[in-house]
Structure formats: structure tokens, C-alpha cells
Amino acid sequence: MPATAAISKPRRSEAARLRRYAEATHPRGWIAAADPAWRSGWERLAAEADAMTPDAYLMGLMEQLAWFHDGHTTMYVDGRVGPSGMIRAPGFDLTLPIAASPFFDGLYVTAAKEEGAPLLGARITRVDGVAVEKALRSFAEMWPGNNPTRAHHDADLILRPAVLRGARLAAPAGVSAPVTVEAEIGGSLVKAVLIPRPDAREALIPLSRKPFPVETWRPGPAPNFVHANDHALVIAFDRLFASKDSILAFVREAFAAMEAPAIERVVLDLRRNDGGDNRMGEGLRKHLERSRFNRPGGLYVLIGPHTFSAAQNLTSRIERETWAVFVGEPSGGAPNHEGDATPFQGDGFKAYVSTLPWFDSHPYDKRIWTMPDIAAPLRFADWTAGRDQAMEAAFAHVNDQPLDDLSEQHTNYSERPSQKMEWKPFWRL
To answer: Which SUPFAM superfamilies does this UniProt record tie to the protein (predicted)?
Structure first.
């Protein structure tokens, strides 16, 4: 089937069904139904739907779902929920022979092959003539997420031809049209014309770099692990959707390690945890609350844009119940958010809509993220050099705050000064 082939079922009626499904399913669906902006957006899409290319139509649906500012109410372009949950419409299988990673200071090509090879290690400056900062700002406006970190986390998706063309991030062109990427490396400009194809991302050559210490501490293939580093105990909790038995074994190992007299602080690393079953974090959380580390200077939690869903639940509960200091970058979720999404089956796609509110902070907490108390943004030079600024800060920080459960900063935690800070990566300047 060619990339411009129409999806078989009438799109206008399909869009109307998805709209009704979202209004009936999402906890804030009734608010959406009464909002003129929600209604007019769907009406505009319905009027154009049957004449649109598949990529434009599906990105149009995505933009409407973004009204909820909910990272669970979305559609998946990549394989993070498995092949069955991905968009399977024409053109969405096409990729380019590069992969890019977002950093605080730019979007860098971190793997490449063939015609993309000259871009390896370069900072992308333009995509099909559009400044990458402008493209990402446009992407953030239409991409479902609780906050701007979601668009930052997913920035590589602007290099998916179906997203680039369908969301109109660059000049109009067919989804199979070549994509010109301009970049800067070592003070020199480089340009490559990339051809979309289904196998473009197979066997990419990664950029050589020095690993972070936490990457070298992992003892084996298990996603979660514990590592004692001098007087600090690092608990790397990367996955909440592993088997119950494996998580229980990991948590028991953490409990035992916390008993070592030499350990003076715990560093809980949630930066690579994008969720799962939030009940799987409860045992560790409650143990930390009752432990000798629940004091100023005893507990540090590393967070970032990948900290999402059940990992955000864990973050919010620890923030509410402990003296933890948060280090890194803003979390990918909001302290009060919706989740447990169920799928709407469309023609060639699934759209997921949240069903339950997960409010782990107080009802007045309107934050869109958990901000770090100690900001340690990830920059490209640190990543290539293997320098983990967030981990270093958690090891070195001295917290002389008094242990006062009645302090304003502890009781009114959502209003503490760090939560008023801004986050300005390169594309939000």
C-alpha cells in the first residue's frame, strides 16, 4: 500500500467515535466536552479528515488528545508499548538512518549509518530547513504530555517522517520524501539528505562514549540493582513492571544493604523508570519512611524526564512522606495525574485514554512536574565523558536543614522554592 493511501474506514465518523470515547472515558472528559476549544478542534479535524493523508490525520488526532495534557492519553509512534500498540498506518514504518538524543544543550545524533554517518556526534540545527528549536516548540504544542519534558523526552520522534510531515513541523511533502538534516560538529557545519525506509534504523552504529559510573555498577541483566559506593547506597530502580518475584528480591536486597553501619545516605535513582505497577514501589517507599535515612541529608532521589507514570507516583509519595532531596531534571509526570489508560481501536492505530485519577499529592497541588531541589541538567559533553552530575551532586550535598516536621518547607512541600524554578532547555529559550 503506498504511503499516501487512504485509511479504509470513513475518518470523519472514526474521529467522532474517538472524541466520544475520550469524553466518556477520561476523568476530565466531561470538562473537555464543555470546552469550546476542544469542540472546535474536533470539528475542524472532522471537516478535513477524509481528504487528509494518513500521517496528517493521525497526527491531527494526537493533537486533539493533547488537550488533556496527560502523557497516558496518547497514541504511540514507536514500540514502547509493544508492536500491537503502535500506529500501523501507511508511512509510520518509515524511519531515517540516524537516531538522536535530547540533551539540555541540544538534540544530538547518537547513532547513525550510511548517508547519516557524517552526522554522528553532531548537534542538529535544522530539519528540512526549519530550525530544530522551532520544530520542537511546534512539536510540544501538539504532543500529549503532562508537561514540556514529554516533548523533550520524545524529541527524536521529529525525525520520524510521519511525525515530521503529519504534524507539519516542516514544509509539506510526502511521507517518503527525503529529509535534509543540517548539524554542527566541532565548529563545522554538515548536511545530509536522508532517505526514509522501513529498515533505516536497523544496525545503527552508536557514538563511542565513556559510560556513567551507574552504568558500570549494574551487576548483570537485571533492570534493578543496589550498589554501595563508599558511604552512599545507590538503589537503581529502573523498572516497576518486572515480575513481582524479581522486584521483591531486589527490594529485599536493598533492605539488607541499608542495614550496613557504614552507609550514611541512600540515593534512589528513578531517572530511567517510566512506570509500571505503582504497587511494586510501596514496600521500598514505606521502608525508607521508617528508616534512619528519613532525615535531612539522608535520602536523595534522582529524577528526570523519563520519570513517569508509576515512577511519578513513587516520586510524589516519597516527596510527601520523607525528607528526600530531589536531584536532576524535572520529572516526566505531574504529582497529580491520570493513568490506567484503555485503548480505542481505530483503523490502523490504537488511541489510549486514561481512566483513573492518581492524586498522590494534596488537592491544591497544580504542579505539572516535580522539580529538582538540586538542578543537574544532562548535557551532551557530560554524557560523552561519562560524568554524572546528578549522582555527583547527591553524593556531595550537605543538608543542614533542621529536622522540623512543622516547618513550612516540609508541610507545604509543593510550594518550596525549588518548585518555582523554571526549566529552559535549548528549545525553550
So the answer is: ClpP/crotonase (SSF52096)
Helices (H) and strands (E) in the chain, counts: 14, 17
How far is it, in rounded angstroms, from Cα 17 to Cα 276?
Answer: 28
CATH number for the domain whose boundaries are 98-206: 2.30.42.10
User: For residues 387 and 377, what is the distance between their CA atoms, to the nearest angstrom?
Assistant: 12
Residue 368 has pLDDT above 50, yes or no: yes
pLDDT digits (tens, 9 = 90+) for 225-279: 999 999 999 999 999 987 899 999 999 999 999 999 999 999 999 999 999 999 9
Tell me what pLDDT residue 9 has: 60
Q: In this structure, what are the phi and psi dihedrals at residue 31, rounded to the nearest 5 degrees?
A: -70, -40
Sheet holding 299-303, edge to edge: 225-229, 232-236, 265-269, 299-303, 325-328, 374-375
DSSP string, 243-266: -HHHHHHHHHHHHHHHT-TT--EE
Give mean pLDDT, residues 175-202. Answer: 98
CA–chain centroid gap for 412, Å, is 27
Strands 106-112 and 205-206, bridge-based pairing? antiparallel
Q: Is the entire prediction scored with pTM above 0.85?
A: yes
Class of domain 213-333+369-428: alpha beta
- Indicate the domain borders of the chain: 11-85, 98-206, 213-333+369-428
Residues paired with 126 in a beta bridge: 131, 182
Residues 404-419, buried b or exposed e (16+ Cβ, 10 A)?
eeeeeebeebbeeeeb
pLDDT recorded at residue 4: 41
